């Protein structure tokens, strides 16, 4: 088994979306929710946090003493630690940028939140946001890690509660087929106990998806209207294009002769 990359973290497998800003109160509430109820049943796996976007939120389990977090971002400032309240600890670093993608300003901010009282101290909430910026010189544009990142093939695991330490193994094809057979057998036994006939899906002659959602009459009316509109558009275009102009009886007449005849008709007495 290959050694686990040192810049990987035991990250929560749940996707938390993005949030432009996060207050200290919201961070405290977030961390409390991760330590109880459904949040305590979330799984974690060894993954990377790499080149995050503005507003991204990550959660990871700190398995050892606090260490610098490598996330693919180059920071021009040192990380500072402070406690805005008795229960919350914050690690903040500013002036970050992602090397190699053309960023000319370092304006990324990373904050790591951890509960020191009233929660699980190993659960760390990470939030990325926009902050004050500094210019980036070409000499600074050096990646902070080597790419491509090594692949980590380890199953997720629980980190809290009664299942703490248990791994979640992905079911293979045989297990899935066996589970499906068990479900089918259970459904058949329930139908038999209720005196019902097995449900057989009727095959319709018309395989149009619309026939599965509407009645025959409604389907016929809908199709008639749709076909009528399509044909109307086709015939409207072709009717204009194919209309042949009626030739004028004066098309080949001589203008001078017509004017002479017209003048003579007015000069002839009635």
TrEMBL record:
Pfam families: SWI-SNF_Ssr4_N (PF08549)
Region of interest (Disordered), residue spans: 187-215
SWI/SNF and RSC complexes subunit Ssr4 N-terminal domain mapped to chain residues: 12-146
GO biological process, one term: chromatin remodeling
Biased composition (Low complexity): 187-197
Protein name: SWI/SNF and RSC complexes subunit Ssr4 N-terminal domain-containing protein
Taxonomic source organism: Rhizoctonia solani
Upper lineage: Eukaryota, Fungi, Dikarya, Basidiomycota, Agaricomycotina
């Amino acid at each position: 088994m290959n050694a686990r990359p040192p810049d990987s973290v035991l990250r929560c497998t749940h996707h938390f979306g993005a949030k432009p800003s996060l207050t200290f109160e919201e961070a405290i509430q977030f961390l409390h929710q991760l330590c109880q109820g459904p949040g305590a049943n979330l799984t974690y796996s060894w993954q990377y946090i790499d080149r995050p976007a503005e507003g991204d939120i990550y959660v990871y389990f700190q398995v050892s003493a606090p260490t610098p977090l490598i996330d693919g971002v180059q920071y021009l400032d040192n990380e500072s630690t402070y406690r805005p309240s008795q229960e919350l600890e914050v690690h903040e670093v500013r002036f970050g940028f992602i090397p190699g993608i053309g960023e000319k300003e370092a304006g990324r901010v990373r904050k790591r939140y951890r509960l020191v009282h009233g929660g699980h101290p190993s659960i760390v909430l990470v939030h990325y946001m926009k902050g004050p910026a500094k210019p980036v010189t070409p000499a600074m544009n050096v990646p902070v890690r080597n790419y491509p990142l090594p692949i980590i093939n380890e199953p997720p695991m629980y980190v809290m509660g009664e299942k703490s330490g248990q791994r979640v193994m992905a079911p293979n094809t045989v297990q899935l087929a066996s589970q499906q057979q068990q479900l089918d057998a259970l459904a058949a036994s329930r139908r038999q106990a209720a005196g019902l006939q097995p449900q057989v899906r009727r095959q319709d002659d018309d395989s149009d998806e619309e026939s599965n959602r509407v009645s025959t009459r409604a389907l016929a009316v809908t199709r008639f209207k749709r076909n009528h509109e399509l044909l109307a558009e086709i015939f409207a275009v072709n009717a204009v294009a194919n209309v042949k102009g009626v030739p004028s009886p004066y098309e080949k007449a001589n203008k001078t002769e017509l004017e002479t005849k017209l003048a003579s008709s007015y000069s002839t007495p009635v």
